[in-house]
């Protein structure tokens, strides 16, 4: 009896110790690990350039197609696409700035209208187009960037969309999620039925009238 | 005997399992965790701005002083200081570029000669100066940046140094560590005895003739 008690105490002490070590390990590494930005950037570079990003996009769009196949498409069925890092890629300029940001350089890049299409998004866009889904771009870009954005989309193969919605002067005070959900509400009021919403930021997918939510990966930045 | 064997097997199986879990946990989180760069940048920002960076510098220089106190300073005793993020801080421009890099912007920043001193380094520099240690700056910056660097150091309070060594045209093909250790060798040949070497990169401290190695933290970048 005494021996049994002693053995149990030993076991539970050991288990407690191991649980503690495990908890501390998990806590220390996943909650708030400080990493040299060179290391963090190189990991992100590897993710985008080694094929992992492409693989993830393929998987996400395959799942989205499986969901779309279950839906009966109507005349007013619409899909909402975000622009930056959803339809068009900013990876090149981000890498050129060593994954940093400079207002003027990014502004010039946007106005150049030379952003490449994200090919999996374009493929999914065309898949929806063939099904007769109405295609709408909804972006946090400003009205001054409308022409460059419109031209960039068309030149990259995003043709035949119904509308491109950008931020007007009075929309600038709104947060990204608030602006986008308000615009979706207006689209609903105009008769559209949104069946799917595609974006790389959670702010693209928050709020009502999104339909199927398709979240693309983005390890470069986060929009609030 | 049989029971004993069985008990041991159980224990070792459990230990093996726990070791495996622990190893996998450590491996998965610390070796290659992919983090959104916004998150990685915010952690680095917090490190630099919350006082943790200052705290670490204070601790490092206190330890360095304790080591210096054990040394008999001679007429030819010399200390080597790196410039960028050792004597002068690039944190401000790094933050302005959202922790990225643009050649022209960084070049303009260097040429502005307005980099602030890292106050703990300046304090340690003055401590060595009072002790009669010869003070030498050794930087990977180029010859075109010599004047701006010289002026910046003086204006920030780094006065009375013996020499400022930058990369000449023919040094440009050398890696940072190779260039710096070669220059240290030349200093030795000129009669200096290097008692301490201070830098934020391991390349500042690799090779011979370093004396005491003082490695400052740098989570912004790594120099190869």
Oligomeric form: homodimer
Spatial sequence of strands, sheet with the most strands of chain A: 3-2-1-4-5
CATH architecture of the largest domain in chain A: 3-Layer(aba) Sandwich
Task: Identify the CATH homologous superfamily of the largest domain in chain A.
Answer: HAD superfamily/HAD-like
The tally of structural domains of chain A comes to 2
Give me the strand/helix succession of chain A. HHHEHHHEHEHEE
- Report mean pLDDT of chain A, rounded to a whole number: 91
CATH class of the largest domain in chain A: Alpha Beta
Strand content of chain A: 5-15%
What's the CATH topology name of the largest domain in chain A? Answer: Rossmann fold
Outline of chain A, from the CA principal axes?
A: globular
Total number of helical segments of chain A?
A: 8
Distance between the termini of chain A: 62 Å
Q: What pair of chains forms the biggest interface?
A: A-B, 32 and 32 residues
How many DSSP E strands of chain A?
5
C-alpha Rg of chain A (nearest Å): 23 Å
Judged by helices, strands and strand pairing, the structural class of chain A is alpha/beta
Question: Main beta sheet of chain A: strand number and arrangement?
Answer: 5 strands, parallel
Helix content of chain A: 40-55%
């Amino acid at each position: 009896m005494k021996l049994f008690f002693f053995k149990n105490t030993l076991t539970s002490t050991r288990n407690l110790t191991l649980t503690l070590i495990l908890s501390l390990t998990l806590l220390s590494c996943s909650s708030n690990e400080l990493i040299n930005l060179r290391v963090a950037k190189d990991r992100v570079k590897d993710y985008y350039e080694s094929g992992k990003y492409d693989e993830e996009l393929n998987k996400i769009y395959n799942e989205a197609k499986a969901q779309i196949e279950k839906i009966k498409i109507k005349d007013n069925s619409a899909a909402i696409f975000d622009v930056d890092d959803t339809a068009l890629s900013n990876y090149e300029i981000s890498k050129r700035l060593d994954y940093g940001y400079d207002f003027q350089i990014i502004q010039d890049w946007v106005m150049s209208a030379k952003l490449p299409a994200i090919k999996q998004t374009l493929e999914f866009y065309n898949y929806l187009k063939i099904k007769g889904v109405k295609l709408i771009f909804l972006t946090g870009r400003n009205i001054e960037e409308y022409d460059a954005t419109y031209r960039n989309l068309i030149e990259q193969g995003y043709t035949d969309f119904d509308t491109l919605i950008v931020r007007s002067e009075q929309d600038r005070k709104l947060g990204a999620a608030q602006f986008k959900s308000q615009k979706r509400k207006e689209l609903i009021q105009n008769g559209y039925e949104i069946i799917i919403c595609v974006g790389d930021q959670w702010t693209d997918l928050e709020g009502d009238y999104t339909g199927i939510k398709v979240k693309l990966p983005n390890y470069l930045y986060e929009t609030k």
